[in-house]
Amino acid sequence: MANYLFYISLAFIWIMLLYHMFLAQGGYRHFKTFEKVIPKWEQKMNEMDLPTVNVFIPAHNEEVVIKQTLTAMSRLYYPKDKLEVILIADNCSDRTKEIGEEFAAQFPFIRVVETVGEYKGRGKSSALNFALKESKGEIIVVYDADNTPERKAVWNLVMGLVNDEGAAAVVGKFRVINAASTWLTKFINIETITFQWLAQAGRYFWFKIATIPGTNFAIRRSILDQLNGWDTSALTEDTELTIRIYNLGYYIRFFPAAVTWEQEPETFKVWWRQRTRWARGNQYVVLKFLKNLLRLNSRKMMFDLFYFFFTYFIFFFGVILSNAIFVVNLFHELDLQIGSVALVLWGMATLLFLTEIMIALSIEKNQLTAGNIFYTLLMYFTYSQMWIVLVINALFLELKRIIRKEESVWYKTERFSVNKKEEKTV
Amino acid sequence: MTFDRRVLYCATFMVLLLIFNPLTAFAEGRFTSLDERKVTLIYYGSDEGSMKNVHFLDGTLSGLFEHVELVNLDDVNAEKLRNSEIIVFYSAYEIDDQKKLNLFSDYEGFVLGIGDGALHLPQFSDWTISGKQSVFSIGEKTLERPMEILKIEPAEQMEVIEWGQKFEERFPVILKNSAKGFVDFNTFDSERRFIFSKSLFSLFQLEEPEIHPAYIRLEDISPVSDPKQVSETAAYLLDKGIPVYLVIIPVYINPETGKKVTLDDAPDLKKVLEQLVSRGAYVISHGYTHTYHSTETGEGFEFWDSVMNQPITALAADESVAKIKSRDEFSSLEEYGEYLRSLQQIESQYTKNKLENSIHSLTNWGLPPTAFEAPHYAMSSNGYRVASQYFSAIFGQMQVSDTDWKVMTAPLFISSPAILNGMTLYPETIGYVNPDSLDPIGEVEEVLDEVAEVPGAVIGGIYHPYLGMEYLEEFVSLFEKVPNLQWIELDQYPHSVQTDYVQISMPGDGRILVKEEFPWQTKITNYFKDNPVEALLWVIVAVTGIFLSIFIVYIFFLRIRYRKQLFEERN
């Protein structure tokens, strides 16, 4: 019995690890190849009549970060007659709107809108849908309110779309602006770099699959029209949108040349809330689509959903099972038949974790440092283990919600004032 | 794994060395020293009944004489006779080939005639036979049923070794003088087996051995055996200083599901067996699966088609195995011969596969076999020929017919009958404890007492571990009351077991040397077969290892690229 359970947990864990190993290889290959097309693309951009672009910034009480964000927007590299940046003030009770209006006064291509009626205070999806109604640009670019895109970010995103007919959306890369702040942001920094070069780049390289991360992406208005905008009931509107895009027969390009910098949670509590929302959102999406998995048009999405299913359900089950067996074995001899190979596998798993992260880190400038390697090792035993608890908790909450038939509540991620931080360090 | 096994063998070897210090072991290695005189066993009549007796005679003589040659009367020539010091002539039938009989006229050595037909030999030409007579007992032994003998009146002075008795009258049954002897019966069933075997010492003036070699086999241990019972029964014997012979079937096939259960699926039993072997227990290969027909249970035959009662005719038996065709179904003798040869080839291949699988799997599990025993002792003569390529020792009895497995016999001595093609037979002589019998122990005791009357006879018995401890003590005490009983330690005899890849040799000094040299491909396939899960995990380790090295190279390249960038930026 114990033996079978152990094999099951090994199988679950290793299917995942091998898949990630495969993705890491793809991620590296994508890094080596994604830039090759740029000269040709640039040329086309310079020759053509550029499309009109709307940048959406949904904001709900973002006074802490919005100034910095809009400053970055004001410096975007794109013909200003083709660009309109829209700050969507959604149910703000602070100075967000005022700050936005100051920018709008100074920069004609920046506009502030305020959600009204049914759109007001209903969360990000609703705000985006409102802006969609209020604008006309051929291409929509979305940034979270705490983002500071690099100058050519929008340009690069649009470049991806005009050069790739099959892509409904182009996703850029995001980096952590407050990586040095706390132990938590150090972990998140490593995590996000790895996520993008492994999961995003890897999946894109092998299967042309990428997930919209909620920020720093461009999408054709025509597609959004076909899809009737964002799904307001989803906690993770981006995953939801991703699936619908693939179902429509398009794909999403991961183009890491478009870079934005964003703030990450600095305290455990905020992190916990944000990630619980993500986990719950993804669990919701997986379960929603899994029910009619076979009715999905896109084979790729079926596969990717299965991957999500594995991530949030099977893999964690395997890990928990394996941990449970380990603990039980401490107190009660289970007489596991497996020999030294189990220990070797464990070592291999750790090394895989380390090398995969190190590849991702060494792609980014200045990231493969002794400090980061130390944090990576530490992560294996701390941050990664926190995820287990988090996913179980999310699953529990999600089940409770389904049973009680509650509506999902959108928790806005709390922002951290850059200035305050600076004051402290000075 | 291999390392572990080697350590185990080393440990086994060390323990064996300690237990069987050469100084304490018997100096000669053999229980009875064999007589050097050259014996030719000549027989007439090749029917099943005759052959059973001939093989018994051959076996028995080979247990007493170093050189025994088995010859059909048709193949006898003057030279063969000249080279023999003793001729044992067996015939239950009248012989009309006067020319052949005349060959014996000039023969001057000792002649032992057995059966009516032998009286046609010139040596007995002046004996008178005055009719037939029934006797009720021979010597002290009352016969199970009256036996008809010839009333012989020898022409010369003869010493009577055994008298047959009818009420007050007595008639010579076994008699001899310096030049010849005669046995007035021609079958060796029941009591006659013992009477004849015992008489041989007087007939040939052999020294009677003082001891009885003995063994107890723990029979039919398979992966579904209860480890506790095996451990208990074997440990009981070992604790008493009695050598343990573990008769192991390495694979059990569930008759209902067809599912294979190997020792790997029975880790507890495997551990028990390993421990027993390290304590000096001997492993006897009991075939590979104990089955041929898939419909049979674990009680099945493996080297004999018990459904058709014929030799093995297919590499894998299914329902459609056909009866072997008879001579009249072929137009010519050549065709028939060709047909039989092709069947024999299949049987040989089948037997090879099974025996190699058995030896290899047992050795892989750290239980190197030291001898062979066919399930139900059933095997054709061709099967024995194949088995002799792998084993030098065989336990049990021998099947002496290629058409009926029930034709079975065994001499009472450790012997090497011609039919076994060089293998030494450690005969089973007293049977097994049958719990269904009215008197399980008493039944064995009866036979044992008879065996013990024959000097030097092996007392070989079987105990099934599934009986637990219930009968074991009593069973053992039967042995213990035999004076001069000496337990057979197989490693005191030079024996070997070999395949192309495994060499298990026992030089006869208490050592059991195991050499495994599988080619790496076989090692890998075996490992995969034996531990599919673990093997798969090692494959994962290998694949991961390859990727890990690739990743490290990537990191290295990225690092170089980063350095270059820094350098360029600085300039």
Tag the structure with descriptive keywords.
heterodimer; A: about 425 residues; alpha/beta; about 60% helix; disordered C terminus; B: about 575 residues; TIM Barrel; Rossmann fold; 3 domains; nine-stranded mixed beta sheet; 13 helices; about 25% strand; elongated
What does this molecule look like?
Chain A has one domain. The termini of chain A are far apart. The longest helix of chain A is centred in the C-terminal third of the chain and has 33 residues. In chain A, strand 1, helix 3 and strand 2 form a beta-alpha-beta unit. Chain A contains 15 helices and eight strands. The C terminus of chain A is likely disordered. With 571 residues, chain B is an alpha/beta fold. In chain B, strand 1, helix 2 and strand 2 form a beta-alpha-beta unit. At the A-B interface, helix 1 and helix 12 of A face helix 13 of B.
Give the gist of this structure.
Chain A: It is an enzyme of class 2 (transferase). Chain A has helices at 2-33, 38-47, 66-74, 96-106, 124-134, 153-163, 183-207, 221-227, 237-247, 268-291, 299-331, 340-363, 370-381, 383-404, 418-425; strands spanning 53-59, 83-89, 110-114, 139-142, 147-149, 167-176, 217-220, 251-262.
